[in-house]
Specification:
Length: 258
């Protein structure tokens, strides 16, 4: 069934402006993940980008979700944005509470737009992938220089998932048709509003996908997933709970067309 192949969620779950539009009025931070897991089967943990995760913290999150709920954990910015590999070992070590329970879907490596495809950066990415080896890995490029077919081929060889971002038609941004290069497919849906992309994070992700846009995205990913591999689709347009609204609409499409 299509709904078994496609796992839908959002990029984060703890947002004050989701109380009311998505979470019941009065919901506190400690209850958000439990409520989120009543709607979706997976989530991207984005706080791990800003702060190193701890074993106790991930154990606590796992305890608030059902046994079949999974987590994609975003790599810390020291690894992806600051060129520092020292935290790689402790970062992977902290994944054990999720990995041991079969709840770790993988580690998301989001690279900044300033990370161009140079020889130095290619070598750094290779070292980063080696340092995080073990869990399933997914790489999101942001700069168009990585559209070189050799980059995709390298990820295929390593069995690393290429994250396919849905972003506005801005020339410097990375674009790629839906494709599966590793154990799973990975879609991250950010926004299609070019006018707001460089106006700060809240403005950048202030976007609501239309029904027609969601249908088109699903159609493209159905073709890419023809071999039966699992596809994760995460909505990152988190401003004002638009990500949750679109993720629920996407799930309904899967049910209707399954």
């Amino acid at each position: 069934m299509a709904e078994d192949r496609f796992i839908v969620g959002t990029s984060g779950f703890s947002f004050a402006d989701w109380v009311g539009p998505f979470y019941p009025p009065g919901t506190g931070n400690k209850d958000m993940l439990r409520l989120y897991a009543q709607h979706f089967r997976s989530v991207e943990l984005n706080y791990t980008f800003y702060a190193m995760p701890s074993i106790a913290g991930l154990e606590s999150l796992a305890s608030k979700t059902p046994p079949d709920f999974t987590f994609w954990v975003k790599a810390n910015r020291e690894l992806t944005h600051r060129g520092n590999l020292e935290p790689a070992g402790p970062f992977v070590e902290a994944m054990h509470p999720l990995a041991d329970r079969g709840r770790l879907a993988g580690i998301l490596i989001q690279l900044p737009q300033s990370f161009h495809r140079t020889d130095d950066n290619r070598q750094y990415l290779a070292r980063l992938l080696d340092a995080l080896a073990g869990p399933t890995l997914a790489v999101e490029f942001r700069h168009a220089s990585w559209e070189d077919p050799a980059a995709e081929a390298s990820l295929r060889e390593r069995q690393v998932a290429l994250v396919v971002p849905d972003v506005p038609p801005i020339g410097e941004l990375y674009h790629h048709e839906p494709v599966i290069t590793g154990p799973v497919g990975y879609a991250r849906l950010h926004s299609r509003n070019a006018d707001k992309w460089y106006k700060g994070e809240k403005e950048r992700y202030d976007y609501l996908y239309s029904h027609e846009e969601l249908q088109g995205i699903l159609g493209q990913w159905r073709q890419a997933a023809g071999g039966g591999k699992k596809v994760y689709a995460f909505f990152n347009n988190c401003h004002r709970a638009q990500a949750a609204q679109n993720a629920e609409a996407f799930q309904r499409l899967l049910e209707q067309e399954g």
